[in-house]
Amino acid sequence: MSDHPSRRDFLGAATGVAAGAALGLPRAALAAPAVHIRPPARPVAVASANGIRGVERAGQLVSQGMDTLDAAVEGVKIQELDPDDTSVGYGGLPNEMGVVQLDASCMHGPSKRAGAVGALEGIKTPSVVAKYVLLYTNHIMLVGEGAKRFALSYGFTEEDLLTERSRQAWLRWRANRGASDDWLDVPADADLVARPTGTINLNCVNPNGEISSVTTTSGLAWKIPGRVGDSPIIGAGQYCDNDVGAAGSTGRGESNIKVCGAFLTVDHMRRGMSPTDAALETLRRVVATTEPRLLDPEGRPTFDLNFYAVNARGEFGAAAIYGARAGGRGSQFAVFDGETAGLRDCAYLYERR
Ligand code: ASP
Questions:
Q1: pTM of the entire structure?
Q2: How many CA atoms within 13 Å lie on the side-chain side of 278?
Q3: CA distance linking residue 221 with residue 92, whole number of Å
Q4: What's 59's domain CATH number?
C-alpha cells in the first residue's frame, strides 16, 4: 500500500510536536512506548477456516514483497468473488427482504490507518471498498447508499449479488418463517430454517513485523435490512496495532460488539498473553457480558463466536466458545506459517454437547 507522507502530512506532524512542546509535555510523553519485538523470519497469515485459500495467497504475496494490507485484501477477495461461498461478497445470503448487504473493515499497521463499509449493496468486493475508504478519505466508515456511491465513483461496477443458490435459500427461509404470515407452509423436513452465519477475518504479518487485518462478510442471513454486525466495526470485527499484533472475529457479531473483542484481544497480547490465551480471555469476557436470554440453563452461551490472532513475532492462535462434539470436529482456523497453508484446531472454552 503506497503511503508516502505528503507535504500536508509533514507540516501536520511538525505542528503536532510543536503543540506538545507548547503544552510542556516531556519529550518521552510524546513518543509511543518503546516495544522491542523481534519480527518473524517468515510471513504468517491467519484466518477463519473458510480463508484457507486466502491465507495461502496472502502469504505468497507478502513473501514476494507485497504490502500486508494489499495482500490480506487479495486473500479475502478470493472468497468475495466466489459465487459458491454464501457467507461473503457475491453469493452471500441476503437480508430478510432478499437483498445482499455486505460489511467489511481493514487496518494497516504501519500507517495506523483504518477503513470500513457497512450495509453496502451491489458491489462484490467490500474489502476493497473499505481499503479505498482507508486510502482516500479522512473518514473511517461509510454505509449504505453513500458507500455504494463512493465505490461507483472509483469505478467499481454495480451488480446483482444474489445468486440463484442464495435466492433459493432465502425463499425456503421465507416459506418457513412463521405460522401467522401469508406464506404457505412447506414440508417439515425442508432445511435452512436456521440462521446461517459466515465471515472471513484474515490477519497477516511480514518478515519485517508489519501487520494488517481485514474482515469481510454478508453478515447474518435474513437480518433486518440495515443491520450492521461486528465485521465493519474497528475494534470488534478486526483490529491491528503494528507494535503488538492483529485479531479478528467470526460468529455472533452482536456479542462481539459489546466487548470490542478484536481490540480486547490485541490488548491482552499487549500485556504479554499469547495469541491463543488472548483469544480465550476475550471469549470469557463475552460469556460474562451475555444477557440471560442467550444462556442455557448451565450459563453457557447459545451461540458461537471465534477469535483469530497473530502477534508481531508471527506467533498465532485462535479460540472458539465451543469445541467439538464427542467424536466430531470442532472449530478450525486457517494458517500460512511461512511455508504451507493448513487448518488447525481452535482452542475453546466448553465441550459441545
Ligand atoms: N460476525 C458476522 C456478523 O455478525 C457473522 C458471522 O461471522 O457469521 O455479521
A1: 0.85
A2: 29
A3: 8
A4: 3.60.20.30
Domain count, the chain: 1
Instruction: Decide: 207 and 223 in contact? Cβ < 8 Å.
Output: no
| Ligand 1, pocket-test mutation among 195, 199, 224, most atoms within 8 A of CB | 199
Q: How far is 58 from 202, CA to CA, in rounded Å?
A: 9
Q: Is residue 334 part of a domain?
A: yes
Ligand 1 — pocket residues by CB below 6 A? 197-199, 217, 219-220, 229-231, 250-251, 253
**How many other CB atoms sit within 10 Å of the CB of residue 150?**
20
Q: Which domain holds residue 70?
A: 44-350
> Which residue minimizes the CA distance to atom 9 of ligand 1?
219
Residue 26 resides in a domain: no
The answer to whether residue 143 is domain-embedded is yes
Question: Position of cell 499469547?
Answer: 274
3-state secondary structure of 307: strand
- 15 is annotated as an active-site residue: no
From the list 219, 96, 213, 89, the residue with the least C-alpha distance to 156 is 89
Q: Are 277 and 171 in contact (CB under 8 A)?
A: no
CA of 211 to the centre of ligand 1 (A): 23
Measured CA to CA in angstroms, residue 188 lies from 106, 171, 184, 192, 209 at distances of 42, 15, 12, 11, 53
Query: 315 in helix, strand or coil?
Result: coil
Give the Cβ contact number of residue 225 at 10 Å: 14
250 found inside a domain: yes
pLDDT one digit per residue (tens) for the chain, 353 residues:
644 445 455 444 444 444 444 444 455 455 555 555 677 878 999 999 999 999 999 999 999 999 999 999 999 999 999 888 877 888 788 998 999 999 999 999 999 999 999 999 999 999 999 999 999 999 999 999 999 999 999 999 999 988 888 888 888 888 777 665 555 555 555 544 445 567 999 999 999 999 999 999 999 888 889 999 999 999 999 999 999 999 999 999 999 999 999 999 999 999 999 999 999 999 999 999 999 999 999 999 999 999 999 999 999 999 999 997 766 667 899 999 999 999 999 999 998 87
